Structure to design on (578 residues):
């Protein structure tokens, strides 16, 4: 290894929320030698005990104590909680670096825009997750080869941004930088709408198919891949849809319009247009390979 | 191996359509020692040459000759072609066993219902596929641990059904039997609607997201899994939607209704109901695990 990252000083790190994201991040921080100890802050007692048992974290402390004892603090909690916790964390921060892993960014950067310690905070969204949640869902090699978006980097102190960049590089993520508003728009297209379609597809099948056994036995790989996101946790997703409401509504309206085109083709038996719609959809190959 | 399958006599088999499904089936028939030679029938000259080059088949012959030289014939072509080819195949069949791998079954069993050789034909749907097509898309271990539906088995000769069952068992598939009408209904829920939502999602994103690069860089695993089916071949899918029009329309209408519920929650900021919708969708866990 020739990179300067190896000389990166280990920091004592607090992870607020040791679930899927926080727990997976803990595994990476330990494995890549970036942590001089990890403190967990966790309101769910069962999750706290499990995270300790799994060795994801070294100890559980109350938030204030954890901040006082750390050099870096990561927030990995639902985005509604983030809005209230982040300003409180910054209130208590001195030299520490703070970053978050939330799926929406605009409201979060707005809520701390005027905070005297705004510079210590770096807004990030590592674009990785699974449909599972809690510390037991944490996996090694999470985040690797995925994109991470750093938002409004200009509002953060240079040393804070640089350290956070190094952390994500060391985990093996591709760094992207954009404004929070642009992030939330793109996230609605490439992530949030997929979850809505998957939730709605699950509800469709549960409504129409009264024979569970038939779904269970017949479900193809195609069905599983389109519906697996429907297992995702509402405590995470309702706040995301709330915070990104306008963008999500905009994409959802377009999606319903697109589905109505398929419906109209079938109703009118216009199979030439149906063919065109599918050929157009095939263009996603140029992007996804 | 203690099963009687090993004593299964090898048959000379014709595969009509050596694409993804026919090619993958050829790999399995060879690997599991069920074929005493495989003849391909293929209208696409490029596919024919490629299937020979890849060793999926031993030779390419015109349909009539292939039938005359075979003991079993498999049809693995789009379901609109199936409707016209199957009766012609049965016209030429004597002792041979014929089965198909089509995704819709009602129209197909209807079209040969009164055929004097109906007994030689077994209607099947192995529930496996990928979003790719052509002989190069053929993969080893295809079909394994997936379900195969045998329809209207009572209309087939006992020896024909038994042999086809043995073939699918040897490939490692779970056998299910049902009437063609029930199959098409269930297939609309667990397969066809997933493809429509995926095509429509691709069109949504291609319509709204003008920055290809943003999709490319940001696309998460979740997005890829919900949209990958949108790469599927229209030559295969338009005929499926045509033949299963009523069931697909019924499920599609329900799906649009379900999406409208999400839309209404967001518009009215009714996040309690949004939570309920997601919790309901989570019930898909009890089926998919």
């Amino acid at each position: 290894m020739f990179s300067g990252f190896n000389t990166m000083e280990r920091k004592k790190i607090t992870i607020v929320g040791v679930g899927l994201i926080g727990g997976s991040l803990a595994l990476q921080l330990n494995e890549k030698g970036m942590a001089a100890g990890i403190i967990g802050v966790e309101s769910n007692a069962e999750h706290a005990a499990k995270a300790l048992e799994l060795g994801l974290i070294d100890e559980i402390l109350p938030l204030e104590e954890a901040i006082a004892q750390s050099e870096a603090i990561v927030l990995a909690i639902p985005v509604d909680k983030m809005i209230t916790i982040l300003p409180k964390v910054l209130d208590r921060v001195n030299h520490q670096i703070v970053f978050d892993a939330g799926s929406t960014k605009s409201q979060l950067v707005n809520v701390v825009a005027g905070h005297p310690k705004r510079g210590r905070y770096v807004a990030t969204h590592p674009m990785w997750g699974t449909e599972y949640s809690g510390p037991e869902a944490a996996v090694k090699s999470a985040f690797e080869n995925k994109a991470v978006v750093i938002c409004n980097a200009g509002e953060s102190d240079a040393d804070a941004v640089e350290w956070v960049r190094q952390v994500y590089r060391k985990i093996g993520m591709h760094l992207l930088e954009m404004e929070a508003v642009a992030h939330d728009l793109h996230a609605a297209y490439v992530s949030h709408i997929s979850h809505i379609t998957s939730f709605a597809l699950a509800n469709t099948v549960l409504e129409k198919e009264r024979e569970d056994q038939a779904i269970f036995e017949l479900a193809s790989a195609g069905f599983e891949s389109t519906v697996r996101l429907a297992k995702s946790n509402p405590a995470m997703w309702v706040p995301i849809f709330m915070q990104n409401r306008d963008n999500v509504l905009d994409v959802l309206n377009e999606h319903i319009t697109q589905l109505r085109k398929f419906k109209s083709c079938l109703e009118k038996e216009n199979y030439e247009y149906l063919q065109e719609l599918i050929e157009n959809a095939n263009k996603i190959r140029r992007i996804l390979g």
Notes: Chain A touches chain B through 92 residues (CB under 8 Å). Chain A has two domains: 4-178, 183-288. The beta strands of chain A are 11-16, 35-41, 59-60, 72-75, 97-100, 121-126, 147-151, 174-178.
